[in-house]
């Protein structure tokens, strides 16, 4: 039986689309250098994850959205997992964590011309501090007495800090430095203020597998072990200028 050329082309396109269909969907946020739509391969954590699953024969789709939406979508069962979580978030949403992929140095960013020195967090009582809605910050930091004001993402908080609407921003060091360098109106105006207040592991995490689905947490761990054994894990980190945990 012979088919018109147009029909053959349509069948070929449908086959390619089916072949490219993702086996699992993960959600994440703009959190450079670890996760970003604007970085090669999506950033270090996204590339590690897509490559780890590829070693096990699985294709991943990664969607970017505000963090509060990531957590809501996970709870509603729209995704099998998420990237770049802290342990508090994993526990709250009853997810299955990966091994630590990186460690976040969590602390404050300030305006260069208006530092906020302190010896004890209690000295910041009443100060306005920018935080992101949905982030699982260590509770001891949130309960230390400063006034936390929420925004949708980190770069919004940094812009508010530069405009004088916040006294400080609570943020991961590498992320803040990347965002400042990438945002012309912030360059040279904001800085990290030592010391780091917490060192928090950054994780991938997965929902409990549904009947008939793979155990994605175990598949991911197998894939990471392959990347570690063949040296690709280190090469990915070197490409993104990030350090191993």
Q: How would you describe what is shown here?
A:
With 245 residues, this protein is of the alpha/beta class. The protein is 36% helix and 24% strand. The chain contains 9 helices and 9 strands. Strands 1, 2, 3, 4, 5, 6, 7, 8 and 9 form a 9-stranded mixed β-sheet that branches. Helix 2 packs across helix 8 (216-230). The longest helix is centred in the first third of the chain and has 15 residues, at 5-19. 33% of the residues are buried.
Task: Provide a compact summary of the structure.
The protein has nine helices and nine strands. The chain has 245 residues and is α/β, with parallel strands linked by helices.
Task: Please give the number of β-strands.
Answer: 9
What is the N-to-C order of secondary-structure elements (H for helix, E for strand)?
A: HEHEHEHEEEHEHEHEHH
Mean pLDDT: 90
What overall form do the CA principal axes indicate?
A: globular
How can the largest sheet be summarized? 9 strands, mixed
The termini sit apart by 59 Å
> What ranges have pLDDT less than 50 throughout 5 or more consecutive residues?
1-19
- Binned, the helix content reads 25-40%
Query: Number of helical runs?
Result: 9
Spatial extent as radius of gyration: 21 Å
Strand content: 15-25%
- Overall structural class, as computed from helix and strand content, comes to alpha/beta
Write the layout of secondary structure elements.
Elements lengths: L4 H15 L4 E5 L15 H12 L4 E5 L2 H9 L5 E5 L1 H6 L3 E2 L4 E10 L16 E5 L6 H4 L4 E5 L2 H9 L5 E5 H10 L7 E17 L9 H15 L1 H8 L6
Parallel strand pairs: 1-2, 1-3, 6-7, 6-8
Antiparallel strand pairs: 3-9, 4-9, 5-8, 5-9
Helix pairs in contact: 2-8
